[in-house]
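Work package 3, deliverable 3.1, input record:
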Amino acid sequence: MMPKFNFSVMLITPLSLTMNMNFCVICGHKTTEKIPLGDHQLRRVCTDCGNIHYINPKVICGALVIWENKVLMCRRAIEPRYGLWTLPAGYMELFETMEQGAARETREEAEAEVEIEQLYCMYNIPRIGQIYVLFKANLVDGQFGSGEETIESRLFSEDEIPWSELAFPSVERTLRHYFEDRKTNQFDMHLETLGSRLDHTG
Amino acid sequence: MMPKFNFSVMLITPLSLTMNMNFCVICGHKTTEKIPLGDHQLRRVCTDCGNIHYINPKVICGALVIWENKVLMCRRAIEPRYGLWTLPAGYMELFETMEQGAARETREEAEAEVEIEQLYCMYNIPRIGQIYVLFKANLVDGQFGSGEETIESRLFSEDEIPWSELAFPSVERTLRHYFEDRKTNQFDMHLETLGSRLDHTG
């Protein structure tokens, strides 16, 4: 049975990351695919002004937010993975730091103010050209809510985690690391490569 | 006195990161600046097909390469900072991991094969929309050379480091951390925010 959200998820393929740059953003003329002088990779290059259109990996910043030994999670009100549980995270914006990005995403998705404690998990997801940068953080005052992209937010203790309803492998990996590390109270940074899922969402 | 390379450096300004996306990469029609529905920031949006042109921070991967207690550095054959010394580093490519990016850049700039040891330094440089991800690595066989972007490569012991001829603040910070951490042989990951230089190169 195909879950309802599968079609939109399938659009996030490696191919879609590199296609469709048919016109130059600077002058509007057509682009063509070639390896620029001194480069080693095919790029979309403007046939008129020569502008090279690089496509770079994107950074996703997020937070593992703790309050009274519970983890803050958000149930997604958007595709992909509508209805599943995630940690507050999203694309890093220009001119912000990774820590600011993680705090902003938590504010937007969980209406919560956090104090960033440390860099905790980083994931390469090369198939979809993303890196995840997740910080361990604490709720400032225990308050949280549900932003526009969130159906509901909730604090989960370890035995309440909805393991079968997590939105992304990065969420599961981070939770597993946290509950394991908590046994020794030693939270070293974890760097891993993810991304063998067939639907390419890491 | 204006150094010869200053003009090209000045082109790398925050403004230049957000300007000039006048045409849609998908359909070639004009873009306009507006805040898309559900968004909080101004974006360049196509007036015809509605495509939103996000501009995201870029990831620079690099390596602090060690061989017999010396550090491998490259003298830049390109702008900005032509003639100054740097660590092998460059823009992360789509579909590679950060570790692969660091190893690839070392291969391209210093013609050296490395074994990545650990994530060592990360820098936010928000003014220019970049994050640096630097790994501690070892030369595999002691061999190195000079790639197309490099005038010469060299192994430096601590007392040979050309402190007044380093290309970027991130290079100096990383070297200072390394020689400090070496005293205790404890190489914890450093995460910092840089970027108060007037020429915006971090």
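Chain A has a mean pLDDT of 90.
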